[in-house]
Amino acid sequence: MAEPMASARFSIAHVTPYPWEARDNEVNAHVRAVCEELSRRGHRVLVLAPSRSQERVRASRRELRAARARAGGPGSLLVGTDAGTPRVIAVGEVLDLPVAAHNGVNGAPGSSRRRMPALPIDVARTIEELLSIVPLDVVHVHEPFAPSTSNAALRHSRALNVGSFHCASERYVLSTLVARRFVESFYGRLDARTASSPATAELMARQFPGDYRLVPGAGGAAAELESIYRELAARRHDPDGDPALRERLAGRRQIDVDLHMHTDHSYDCATPVEVLLASARERGLGAIAVTDHNEISGAIAARKHALQAGIDVRVIIGEEVKTADQGEVIGLFIEELIPRGMTLQETVAEIRRQGGVVYVPHPFDRLHSVPDYEHLLKIVADVDAIEVFNPRVAIGAFNDEAARFAAKYRIVAAAGSDSHVAQGLGSVRNRMRDFDGPAEFLQSLRDAEIHTRPTSLLYVQALKFLQTRATPPSARRASRARRVKRAMGGSRK
């Protein structure tokens, strides 16, 4: 599943929060030395830094515009950066603000009037553009306190993220934190953390718990970082899949597939199986995954009804399983009920035992029950697909974070409506080649296109409330009978 890393060359961006002209800055000196050594080792290296020079910023922007027009696109910015000379890109003009003195790299005394730059007004936009269009394996941020260029890079990165911490002054670290919870949420995106001294490692572990690997600023830092990059890259999935399966699927018809939905077999849904299938057919879906909460009876009933009624909609048996305390995970192509309350790893192992597909829904939606970043990393090798778009996610940034996670680990991206009412069904769909079984399904999903349709979250949530909590049980039973009767009438046409 992982890529062979024996002689891999990486495309790396190192990001410093300090203006590149600050030659006496210990962090910049460290970044410069490490990047030059990584470049000599054959890696393609960019340095992203703010600048005090308007001309340098303008020159970098001209360079970016020219790269877009070249045959190699923005990736051409990496050309020639693997022979000992990294390319420095000035991402914005800096405004310096004085701060108290603090220790430098390796815990050595820093300058008496070090300056921590304020975040340039346009830096976030420039960094977001660079990191979204330049193909990078690793984004390595230094001192990613907020607000800073390093923190902005961590926010917008779609690559593997490494964070290096150099300061050993607790007073300085605390003075840079605008909002602790905000900073902590972004530090969760770090795939590896390093510290330049034992004092820094102890300080950061106390303030922001995690594993901080000691990488001193002296000679040998580049080799140690290269080892970290290789370890992280080994977690990535094979992006190509099975060429033989892709060739087999090439001639198949394309169908629209919704991979996440519920029936009235879920405690929080009032949609009968018959209504679900009639709606799926009306909306032009070729396949659906029925994923009730901790239940597969609805999915089995849907598959049986589709066959008996002659409805040409393939039904994938699924279950959205609540783990003990690590969120939810969906098993697709299963045939046996998976009990709730097991650990995330145990649940994934049971999906695997049944030959199913491990699909992680709404992974970073803090308003849902989700596995945190740490637990997700423990199962990353066994995750087959990640839901990168869910229209019921109220905050779009949560979907964006899922897309970044899937991209960095090269996990298959997918989408599902998470429909709890028939009106939401098919509001997002995966356009893919028709498939038979989990292996063909996954290969087809690799090449799928995600299509969304406008829908009102407030509208579907209101319908869900009206159909469940706001309606007395007797009225729900009567409404269900009427809806099933209408759906069955349509099935016979």
Architecture (CATH level 2) name of the largest domain: Alpha-Beta Barrel
- The helix tally amounts to 17
Strand content: 15-25%
The low-confidence parts are 1-6, 97-103, 109-114
Intertermini distance: 47 Å
Q: Tell the overall outline.
A: elongated
Approximate helicity band: 25-40%
CATH topology assignment of the largest domain: TIM Barrel
Output the CATH class name of the largest domain: Alpha Beta
Report the structural category.
alpha/beta
In CATH, the homologous superfamily of the largest domain goes by the name Metal-dependent hydrolases
* Rg from alpha-carbon coordinates: 26 Å
**Secondary structure: number of strands:** 18
Number of domains: 2
Largest sheet: 9 strands, mixed
Average pLDDT taken over every residue: 85
- Strand order, sheet with most strands: 16-15-14-13-12-11-10-17-18
Structural features, described:
- The chain has 493 residues and is α/β, with parallel strands linked by helices.
- The protein has two domains: 11-233, Glycogen Phosphorylase B (Rossmann fold, 3-Layer(aba) Sandwich), CATH 3.40.50.2000; 243-491, TIM Barrel (Alpha-Beta Barrel).
- It is built from 17 helices and 18 strands.
- The strands form three sheets. It has a nine-stranded mixed β-sheet, sandwiched between helices. A seven-stranded parallel β-sheet has the order 3-2-1-6-7-8-9, sandwiched between helices.
- Helix 11 (297-309) links the parallel strand 11 and strand 12 (314-322).
- The two termini are 47 Å apart.
